[in-house]
Structures are given as structure tokens and as C-alpha cells.
Design brief:
With 97 residues, this protein is mostly beta strands. 0% of the residues lie in helices and 51% in strands.
């Protein structure tokens, strides 16, 4: 079963939902599951924790357009990346106001 990374709405104006579906934590150490948002230059903007006690993960996070320090980021294109021991998924998202 291949994991999926779904971002909606896209483009977004204030908040975006990031949904992760279909991968097993039995294959991955939960501490090595990373969901991160990067800007076009590759700079890390926001990190999320997806720890769960379940053997399969369907998880959703909400990104409010702020970086890890709480500052609102500017309009533009960002990349959302899910990384586990066995998979790396990346999708583009656009933030407009």
C-alpha cells in the first residue's frame, strides 16, 4: 500500500489541511516520521509531529501559514514533505492572501 500526501484547499488563503494516508508505522520508527513545509529556497518553514500508537496512520494537520517561530509567512509556493524510513513524498502548495 502506497502512502499518499493530500493538501487542500490548494491554493489556500489562510489555512491548509495536510492529510497523510496509507502507510504503516510498523515499517517505520515513529520518531523518524517527519512532516515539514519548506519554501522555494529549501529553507525549513514549519515542522509537524505525527506520532501515533496505531499500526497504520491516517493523520491530518492544519497549517495556519506561520513558521516555527509563529511569524506569518509571505504569499508564495511552498513544498510539503513527508519523510519516513521507507518513503519520501513531496507536494506543492500555494499560499495566497
Amino acid at each position: 500500500r502506497n502512502p499518499k500526501l493530500v493538501v487542500f484547499p490548494n491554493p489556500c488563503t489562510t489555512v491548509v489541511s495536510v492529510v497523510v494516508r496509507g502507510f504503516s508505522l510498523a515499517e517505520s520508527d515513529p520518531k523518524r516520521v517527519a512532516l515539514r513545509i519548506y519554501d522555494l529556497s529549501g529553507r525549513l518553514i514549519k515542522s509537524f509531529t505525527l506520532a501515533t500508537n496505531h499500526s497504520s496512520l491516517t493523520s491530518a494537520v492544519i497549517w495556519d501559514g506561520k513558521d516555527n517561530s509563529g511569524k506569518q509567512v509571505s504569499n508564495g509556493i511552498y513544498f510539503c514533505r513527508l519523510k519516513t524510513e521507507n518513503h519520501t513524498l513531496t507536494t506543492k502548495l500555494t499560499l495566497i492572501k
